[in-house]
Design goal:
two-stranded parallel ribbon, 4 strands
Length: 158
């Protein structure tokens, strides 16, 4: 969260003349409710099962698409590479906090305790790095988009 993946993903999809999907938005659409409501009423475990169903749907139905996944997606679905190439847009924790306003923080269930969020970030950073085909330090949107395009000539091939 706060890494710029939705912004970068939308721009990249437009430049590559393809589609952009966000798994959190897909889950909200499949479930007809917000993620915060899912966490409040059913808990994280139920949400992770929904992510897994979303992943299976993507594997069977989606090609040549830029997909942004939620922060826990690669942690709980390490087989993420079965759906395509994985790019980790790496941003330091303090920078993420600076990028997010109070409303954005409020709607992030796992970000309510900053210290716990930082610990979670550090744990996930190692997982993201190990799963990624490419790791990009995301500072500037246009530079990041260019780096992804340069790193993946023929990106639309799966």
């Amino acid at each position: 969260m706060g890494s710029g993946k939705s912004t970068v993903g939308r721009i990249l999809a437009k430049e590559l003349d393809t589609y952009f999907l966000d798994t959190d938005v897909l889950i909200e659409s499949f479930e007809n409710r917000k993620i915060t409501e899912i966490f409040e009423k059913e808990g994280e475990e139920a949400f992770r099962k929904m992510e897994k169903r979303c992943f299976e749907w993507i594997k069977q139905n989606v090609q040549n698409t830029i997909i942004s996944v939620g922060g826990g997606f690669p942690v709980y679905i390490p087989e993420i590479k079965e759906a395509g190439r994985v790019i980790y847009l790496k941003v330091e924790f303090d920078e993420i906090v600076k990028r997010m306003n109070k409303d954005e923080i409020k709607k992030r269930p796992l970000f309510q305790d900053i210290q716990k969020a930082k610990e979670l970030f550090e744990k996930r950073d190692k997982i993201y790095s190990s799963l990624a085909d490419i790791v990009i330090e995301n500072r500037d949107v246009q530079t990041t988009v260019k780096m992804i395009k340069d790193g993946y000539a023929g990106f639309k091939q799966r």
